[in-house]
Amino acid sequence: MPRMKYLDGLRGLAALQVVLFHYGNIFLPVAVGSGTLRFLTNGLSAVYLFFLMSGVVLTYSFERRPRAVGAGITGRVVRLGLPLGAAALIGAAFMFVLPETFREAATLAHSNWTARFYTGAYRPVYVIMDATGLTTILGYSGTSIFEALRPFLPPQTASMDQPFWTLHIELWGSLLVLALVYAHARSRWLHGAAVVAASALTGAHPLGLFIVGHVTALALADSRLDAIMRRRWVVGAGLGLLLAGVIVCTHNGLPFVRGLGQLLMLGKLIPVQEYFNWNDEFAAVLIFFGILLASPIQEVLQLPAIQQLGRLSFPIYLLHWPVMMTLGSAVFLAALPYAGQVLAAITALAIGGALTLLLSDLFERRIDAPAVSLSRRLRDAAGAPVQGGGRDGAQGHATYSKLRHDRLDSQSP
What we know:
Elements: H1 5-27, H2 35-40, H3 43-62, H4 69-97, H5 101-108, H6 124-131, H7 134-138, H8 165-186, H9 188-202, H10 208-220, H11 225-229, H12 232-250, H13 255-264, H14 278-293, H15 295-301, H16 304-311, H17 313-380, H18 396-402
């Protein structure tokens, strides 16, 4: 089966959604959070889509060598750590040149959004913590899975590059998928117990999205689904789920959605911080499954321009923030007296977005792609891929072979 290219396109559009979310919140906050614009600028639902996609593609990637746990951890740390360290240094350089521009822009735009998490985040000690990966492991106050240990952890509440908070969830979600793949290679019974235990542990926490993605990956590898997936009613169901996801995304606090989230939190062990939003998680799940079932949407996501955006999605995600807080803010301030707030915000987005794309292309070729390649080589050094299931009938290699493609790792940040 060919590469699931539509996931690349989805990743690119999700990265664009995050960019619109951030630019809207700092330069045009009055337009964010209402009606259709809430969907187009809903950065949290986009982040949750990233987690779901990671659960899928990491399952196939780890199943090449399901028992090479050490190599899997090392490869994942390298794949995330090298781009993160480089992005932290690039962001620090931007903030060194224009350290306070965003504050004036936010004040004139009547936005207090950055003040919630950004004060002092570009201090050298915090930059070092980001660049070395310490905050990726431990997380930030308010989003860490180790929040119960917060009194004993470094008191960092935010990053100089705000999207970095998600890499903490991405790292531990990746290791969760690795553990589930290992269990799957050992025994179906062990795997089932591991999925149930992990689901009970996470509840409605975003980590649970990696479990959803993992289970979905195994289901998609079942050849019995092929004929069903081609039926017209499946496409209709997919389009219906996609529409439902957009509706949920634009109407925060629907009673059914809120009640489902409360049900999932019964008995959970990992606390869900206020920063997370179950409504957007549920919307992301609906949108994700809608796209999996709706082949016409998959074809749109494979258009060349969207695929190119997908190729640059991780660099865009990492680099747009420091560009927005410095050059984007400077452009907004320069345009505001002449164009008004709406046009100034659009101008900031256009110029800041263009620079972000240029930097992202260079970043992808010089840093991100080499990190993917090095990560793969480190895992390949663990030995030959698994050629069959385990003693208890695990089907890891069969799952991987059915959905194999040349650069699976690049589909997950």
